[in-house]
Amino acid sequence: MTLPIPMSRAANRAVQTNVPALIDPAALRAQPKPQLRRYEVSALLPNGDIAETRHIAPALPIFEDAFCAFSRGSMVETETGTICVEDLLPGDQILTKDGPSQPLIWKGSTTLVPGRPGPQGRNLRLTRIMADSFGMQRPMSCVIAGPSARLLHTPDHLRAISGGLQTLTPVQEFQDGMNVIETAPPTAVELFHICLPRHAVIRVAGLEFESYHPGANAARSISHAMRNVYLDLFPHISQLCDFGDLAYARAGDGDHDALTA
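Now predict its structure.
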């Protein structure tokens, strides 16, 4: 037989119960929700067809970095000449710094507003690189790079930790307020990234940028629950290690990839 609980005791328990829905129903609505972003993918299938898909996925750094390297109009060097990144198709042969050209197997794009802070206040601003900033025709014309772009160049203030090696360095490290400047347009900007069968350095308007690779520390930067959502963006791989090795040492990922590459 269940004994009835006195009304006074039940009231005390209700007051002491720390449930937001009981104390303030609006507290549940006020809780921060993960921001989502739309990602578009073009991928080369094993039979040679091109698959185009759209995904809604979290606006987390590891997701955004796969799409935010090159702005519309960036000129990528291919076997048939320079082609705007937005016009590249899976299967196009991309020239690389070392070794033969490689086929483009994946291209991703997304749209963001650089003048608006990203999730958790992340800086998503762009970097404008003026013509000849790194030497004659490097770049050949103004280049606007996204927040995840990396150049095969080591700035002076990072040479001590690079050990004299060429490193893939985030473009933000080169900002000097004159030739390489930060820019944050108040309107939406479409950004792209590309992936090759093997991580490589490609040429964009005369500058040497890297193709997409999540980095040596990717497994530590994404939860197990999010891993499958992330891998669904890349039809050509089934696990993170399928991206292969880094072509060059890389800086800017906390524990330097330069030490683990």
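The helical segments are 7-16, 20-23, 25-30, 61-64, 159-162, 224-231.
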